[in-house]
Amino acid sequence: MEQFSRCCLITNSSSGSNRQAAVEEVKDALAQHEIEIVRAVEFPEQDLPTGQELDAAGLSLVVVFTGDGSVNSAISQLADWTGAVLVLPGGTMNLLSRRLHRDFEAGRIIELVAGGAARRVRPNVCQSRHGFALAGLLVGPGTCWSEVREATRDMNIPAIAETTVEAIGQTAEGPPVAMIEPRLGRPQGYQLVEITPGEHGLQFDGFYADTPTDYARQGWAVLRRKFREGPHDRIGMVGDATLQSADETPLEMLIDGEPIKGEPVERFLATRCPVDLLATAHSD
User: Fold this and answer.
1) In the structure, how many helices (H) and strands (E) does the chain have?
2) Higher pLDDT, 265 or 146
3) With contact defined as beta carbons under 8 Å apart, do 270 and 201 qualify?
4) Strands across the sheet with 265-272, in order?
5) For the chain, N or C: smaller number of CB within 10 Å?
6) C-beta of residue 125 within 8 angstroms of C-beta of residue 273
7) Which intervals hold domain DAGKc (predicted)?
8) What are the percentages of helix, strand and coil residues in the chain, rounded to 5?
9) Would you place residue 208 in the very low, low, confident or very high pLDDT band (cuts 50, 70, 90)?
10) Distance separating alpha carbons of residues 218 and 251, to the nearest angstrom
């Protein structure tokens, strides 16, 4: 049973759920359970800690209360470190936190960890030439719907309307993405491919919009922050795969929510997370 008494806390005030009041609640929960914050980092204004710095300070626990993109940056920085990282739900989607803790709130997760009711795990992640995705990766012109999601987060009605119209146009006109190795899914490809790492490999789902009804269904799903309810196919579960843009233009990607412009052909494979994460529940 592993217990911790000191930590480094990483926060990001621009993350979806990471308002100052929420940060203070996390700090209070750590104090309540006698986990001292020896170092506090506000990312990206301050540099993320390295493993060497944490070892020099005698710290073996990093608590990350940010969105998925900042979590990715922190864990990338700590690759091969021998300590443990506790990921709390501090963003909009919190996909990695859900993998590790289901729907537990931050205070409950801290309580479990402080009581020794957590274990170290190294879950599968999705590796590409651009780094790895801990929670998930989206590929294709449909990644532009993320801008609609951000507008809905702030309930910015004019921005919602503008980005929705732009997203429909970009999705309709953008080149679809097809899986070419192995050859699975629709030969003509999809407007959006979602890659989700799990314990059995990488799950690929293809989202399409062939008709006005499909666009309406997909748009409504995104506006409710449930884009996975839009029309889609389960392409398959594989250990690695290669995706290609239909017209050989660079692939638009979101790696843990962060936009990346890829090459026309990209390979993705399942690998283990490069640092220990603390888990308090079984993954789905």
Assistant:
1) 8, 18
2) 265
3) yes
4) 131-133, 124-128, 265-272, 240-245, 177-181, 183-184
5) N
6) yes
7) 6-129
8) 30, 35, 35
9) confident
10) 21
Structural domains in the chain? 6-123+273-279 (3.40.50.10330), 137-272 (2.60.200)
Higher-pLDDT residue of 232 and 131 is: 131
Q: How many Cβ atoms from other residues are within 10 Å of residue 58's Cβ?
A: 8
36 in Cβ contact with 90 (< 8 Å): no
Cα separation, 113 vs 54, in Å, equals: 19
How far apart, in Å, are the Cα atoms of 270 and each of 4, 156, 233, 237?
30, 37, 21, 11
Dig out the tokens for 75 from the structure. 């864990």
Give 31-76 pLDDT, tens digit per residue. Answer: 999 999 999 999 999 999 999 999 999 999 999 999 999 999 999 9
Tally Cβ neighbours within 10 Å of residue 130: 16
Tokens of 176: 């679809």
Using an 8 Å Cβ cutoff, are 178 and 187 in contact? yes
Taking CA 164 as the corner, what is the angle to CA 44 and CA 144, rounded to the nearest 5 degrees? Answer: 45
pTM of the model: 0.86
- The helix/strand/coil state of 36 is strand
Q: Which residue has the tokens 């803790």?
A: 101
Beta strand 177-181 with 240-245 is: antiparallel
pLDDT tens, position by position, 219-248: 556 554 555 556 689 999 999 999 999 998
Structure tokens that stand for 15 in this block: 């993350």
Share of the chain above pLDDT 90, in %: 66
